[in-house]
Amino acid sequence: MVNQNLGLFWFRILQSVVMEGGESSWIIHNLCNMRREVSALDSYPGFIDEASIETAIISMDSVLPDDVLERILAYLPIASIFRAGCVCKRWKEIVKSKRFLWHFLHGSPQTPWYYMFTSSDEPIGYAYDPIPRKWYGIQLSCIDRTGWLPACSYGLVCLMDTESQSYIFVCNPVTRDCKRLEKPLGSKFSDYSAVAISVNKKSHDYTVALVKSKQVPDNFVQWDLSIQAYDSETRMWMNCLNEVLTGWRGGDESIICDGSLYFLIYSTAGGMGAPENRHALVKYNLSTRSSHDLLIKSFIPVPCPLTCGRLMNLKEKLVMVGGIGKQYRTDIIKGIGIWVLNGREWTEISRMPQKYFQGFEELDDVFASSGTGDLIYIQGYGSPSLLTFDMNHGQWKWSQKNPVTKRFPLQLFNGFCFEPRLEVLP
């Protein structure tokens, strides 16, 4: 028998989509008289959601024209759209069409997902959708192992190989389209590297920025720092800056926000500032790509002693999530705060309530955190527990429990936040 709840769902969607067109009575009349039973809908191979796959779906091929069906399907969540594309050839062609993408863009807004690696050997994991509070199994087809540094922007994910630092891919995790970029300039391996990506929402062109930091030979306080930028339109890398920092080194944390590249640097012996303040923020203007001014002039102090700092672009506002160190033991985390940068000043938005902080099974002084839109995700490396913070409502909430459990004490979990989008391709 056709699932009654699913039938009611389609009934309401039909009412809302076509009521103004005057065709609703004809469509609903035919829909209510349908008696065809159809086979179970297979899940999209990239999304494994066995607990929620419907056992049946109403076939409307005989009563709905393409334009109406496009508008109906555009209201579905992305995971359901891909399942709908497996129903028949006609539906598959519809969800792949440019006209459908237009309806999709003007339909229900999509919230950011969080992808969590669940294996230290394979690039497999689960993506969390906070609206239905469900996890979907996804394999990143462009990589063959874990150990890749991620960066995300407007539906695209940039992945850099941390071993050789010469393999960089840009992919859409939802459509599974992937592209390998040209190798960055120079082959010299760096001690630390950070990658960031920014996608133009209109043209879908993108910029990838790469920050490399390498210790000067036989010198413990000086570090060579370089910045390169890749333009998807020209398909070329450009060397933007080379500079020697004294007492500071780069790391693996960077973000592009409002045309500027921001990255965290870390104090070493002989560094500037108080010894307990181990972090600082650097701003580099990617729009002008000027190297006349020294980076030291753009140093922005962090708001307090941090054990860990994570940068993210939330609606072109630079946001930092950081572990707050204890007063006399700055290497021990006592809480997690969220700040937004206004000019050169930090404003604290929220501090994780103690009940959530204590709710992590294992939370070291280093943790994973990323976000986009109004949503921030935080997770500890030693546990699949995932916490969300809604910037718009100031609300903390645990995610639905991840379907994967910890199998051995040293098992680690990591992840990144991305926007699920259909129209952006690498």
Ordered list of secondary-structure elements with their pairings:
Elements lengths: L3 H15 L5 H9 L33 H8 L4 H7 L4 H8 L1 H8 L7 E5 L6 E6 L4 E6 L8 E6 L2 E6 L6 E5 L4 E4 L11 E8 L6 E10 L6 E10 L4 E11 L1 E10 L2 E8 L11 E7 L14 E2 L4 E9 L2 E9 L7 E10 L2 E7 L2 H4 L9 E6 L2 E6 L5 E5 L4 E4 L15 E5 L8
Antiparallel strand pairs: 1-2, 1-24, 2-3, 4-5, 5-6, 6-7, 8-9, 9-10, 10-11, 12-13, 13-14, 14-15, 16-17, 17-18, 18-19, 20-21, 21-22, 22-23
Keywords: Ubl conjugation pathway
Pfam family, one: F-box
Organism: Papaver somniferum
Supply the key terms:
mainly beta; Kelch-typ_b-propeller; Beta-prop_At3g26010-like; about 40% strand; Neuraminidase; F-box domain-containing protein; F-box_dom; ubl conjugation pathway; about 425 residues
What's the short story on this structure?
With 426 residues, the chain is mostly beta strands. The protein is built from 7 helices and 24 strands.
Low-confidence stretches: 1-9, 11-58, 270-275
Secondary structural class: mainly beta
Domain module count: 2
Q: Describe the biggest sheet?
A: 4 strands, antiparallel
Distance between the termini: 42 Å
CATH topology of the largest domain: Neuraminidase
Give the class-level CATH name of the largest domain.
Mainly Beta
Mean pLDDT: 78
Which second-level CATH architecture of the largest domain applies?
A: 6 Propeller
Radius of gyration: 24 Å
How many helices? The count is 7
Strand order of the largest sheet: 3-2-1-24
Shape: globular
Number of strands: 24
Percent strand equals: 35-45%
Pfam families: b-prop_At3g26010-like (PF24750), F-box (PF00646)
Domain F-box: 58-105
Keywords: Ubl conjugation pathway
Protein name: F-box domain-containing protein
